[in-house]
Amino acid sequence: MKYRDKIYGEFEFSGVIEDIINTNVFQRLKKIHQGGSIFLINPKVNHTRFEHSIGVMLIIKKLGGSIEEQIAGLIHDISHTAFSHLIDYVLEVEEEDYHEQRYHEVLKDRELNAVLEKYQMDRTVFMDTGKFNLLEYPLPYLSADRIDYTLRDMCQIGEVTLTEISWFINGLVTFDDRIVLKSKDYAKWFQSKYNFLIAEYFESEENVEINIIMKEIIKNCLGTGIIEEQDFFEDDFYLMDKINQKLNLMQWIDRIRENGLKNKKLKTKKRIVDPEVIINDQILKLSEMR
């Protein structure tokens, strides 16, 4: 199976990786936008959880992660709901981990488990993604998940180039089973891009506005029975279609935008990074370096 990643280039997949990608539960991620609702008002921001999940796996593979950790990276987002984190805002889940609460249930998918059994792998190995340090590592440190969504989002909005991404990826190394950087230059670059992503994209007026609007619309639709919570278990287009059977979603969005948001705010998870750097076999956080 040949695959071309927008930011990392061309790859050949086979075996368990190829078979997992071809499952319906993974293919569904093609219809889950990485940026949630923003594609509704900014169609250029249209990258998906499918692309991100493969990207996370590719970083883990490049860093020498085991096949089990590569698989964990590949499937870590299979439980994401329609419009990604929108449901967290609707239900006011402060840690924005609604999808993680569903992960164990989605991991029981029959087709996915048939693939794992074919390759003599135990599903329970992947139940705790937190044990895979390359995939997940607590803030403010680096992880394959955190690195990929930063690079992918920033590239999609035109704030980093493919040349910069290639340069940065070459600065990644592992130490004590976690991701660190080869020099302070890589750490400063990534921290600056991550800070930009949070302030100018995640917390941008455009992004906050559409999420507030969609939060209001979805709460209304849930309250009137137009949709149900389990509809989020499908995908973005399924949910939009179900709303559009009763109401015109885009007209509703435009009407709310025209009327103004009346100082409404969106509470989001706070994120900062302080990358670790390896200097003469010693690990220091960027903030500890002169």
From TrEMBL:
Pfam families: HD. PANTHER family: DEOXYNUCLEOSIDE TRIPHOSPHATE TRIPHOSPHOHYDROLASE, METAL-DEPENDENT PHOSPHOHYDROLASE. The lineage of its organism: Bacteria, Pseudomonadati, Bacteroidota, Sphingobacteriia, Sphingobacteriales. Transmembrane segments: none annotated. It comes from Sphingobacterium arenae. Gene3D superfamilies: Hypothetical protein af1432. This is HD domain-containing protein. Residues 45-159 form the HD/PDEase domain. SUPFAM superfamilies: HD-domain/PDEase-like (SSF109604).
